[in-house]
């Protein structure tokens, strides 16, 4: 059973391990400020709550186990969004917990997670994995687990004179005169670029991921670099939890700093919003990791985690 917390008295304490939908904007702001104190472990939920507070373009909602002293927070699409049982891009849950020992009980509830669908769980806590492992085994659900390096800016994020005005720079595409091979232009992406982004995205390359990328580009910023022939050669896109994702540079243009330049554009956009910039990268992408370190990012010890869960009937 779900309870809306939008109209509960100010500090009524709820101590059961059902989950409650948090609606009221003031409570969402309190939660957002509280999650900031738990960064980097709370980053995926923190970024999703930021988007929910700001127009909520992916029609997501926030669940908590208690208020105001919550122990578990889950962000997910509203039920009407999760129509396709095979669309794990849309059917994505972001989780942050202060009580890993209580998580198994919460996640097992069908009102919290629809275990009859293919879906993803994302988070920045290794402690999530035991509860997910136990429940998925009991429900005959296959789990494909990915762990990568979480890279982020220091907190707090504040604009300063070293950061360019991204929106101004995009009004007139900037030409890089110092390149060895003619003119290069920085551009903002739109849904027409989705097919190319999807073709090179490790987690994509299918029709459902294409629709997801199109939706990201309709609602969030994406930046890229055009080569001399007018071909997109490097890009990066923001997604529903405010993470900078889908970064790619075509092989013949690597090691020339184009991903770094593209990342600077998106990083400055995020800095204007005064929220953390963050990526995840695989351990073997050392050149990319070095570029991020050059931009004053740091690797977080908690890591980036994703669990793709597939019921037996879809395997």
From TrEMBL:
One Pfam family named in its UniProt record: Gly_acyl_tr_N
Domain of life: Eukaryota
Keyword Acyltransferase: yes
Primary enzyme class: transferase
Record keywords, A-Z: Acyltransferase, Transferase
GO cellular component terms, semicolon-separated: mitochondrion
InterPro entries xrefs: Acyl_CoA_acyltransferase, Glycine_N-acyltransferase, Glycine_N-acyltransferase_C, Glycine_N-acyltransferase_N
Molecular-function GO terms, alphabetical: glycine N-acyltransferase activity
EC number of the protein: 2.3.1.-
Domain Glycine N-acyltransferase N-terminal: 19-221
Domain Glycine N-acyltransferase C-terminal residues, every copy: 223-311
UniProt entry tagged with the keyword Transferase: yes
Family: Belongs to the glycine N-acyltransferase family.
Protein name: Glycine N-acyltransferase-like protein
Provenance organism: Panthera pardus (Leopard)
């Amino acid at each position: 059973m779900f309870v809306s917390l939008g109209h509960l008295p100010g500090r009524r304490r709820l101590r059961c391990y059902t989950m409650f939908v948090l609606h009221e904007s003031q409570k969402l702001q309190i939660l957002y400020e509280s999650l900031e104190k738990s960064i980097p472990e709370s980053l995926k939920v923190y970024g999703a709550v930021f988007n929910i507070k700001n127009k909520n373009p992916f029609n997501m909602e926030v669940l908590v186990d208690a208020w105001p002293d919550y122990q578990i927070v889950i962000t997910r699409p509203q039920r009407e969004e999760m129509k396709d049982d095979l669309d794990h891009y849309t059917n994505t849950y972001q989780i942050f917990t202060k009580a890993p020992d209580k998580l198994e009980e919460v996640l097992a509830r069908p009102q919290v997670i629809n275990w009859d669908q293919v879906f993803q769980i994302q988070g920045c806590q290794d402690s999530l994995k035991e509860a997910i492992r136990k429940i998925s085994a009991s429900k005959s659900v296959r789990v494909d687990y990915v762990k990568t390096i979480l890279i982020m800016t220091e907190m707090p994020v504040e604009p300063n004179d070293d950061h360019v005005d991204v929106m101004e720079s995009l009004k007139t595409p900037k030409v890089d005169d110092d390149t060895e091979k003619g003119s290069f232009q920085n551009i903002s992406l739109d849904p027409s670029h989705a097919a190319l982004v999807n073709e090179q995205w490790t987690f994509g390359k299918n029709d459902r991921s294409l629709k997801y990328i199109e939706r990201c580009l309709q609602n969030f910023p994406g930046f890229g670099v055009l080569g001399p022939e007018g071909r997109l050669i490097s890009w990066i896109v923001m997604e529903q939890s405010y993470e900078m994702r889908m970064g790619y540079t075509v092989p013949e243009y690597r090691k020339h700093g184009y991903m770094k330049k593209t990342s600077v554009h998106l990083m400055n956009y995020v800095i204007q919003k005064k929220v953390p910039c963050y990526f995840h990268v695989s351990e073997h992408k050392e050149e990319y990791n070095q570029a991020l370190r050059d931009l004053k990012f740091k690797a977080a010890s908690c890591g980036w985690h994703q669990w793709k869960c597939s019921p037996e009937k879809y395997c």
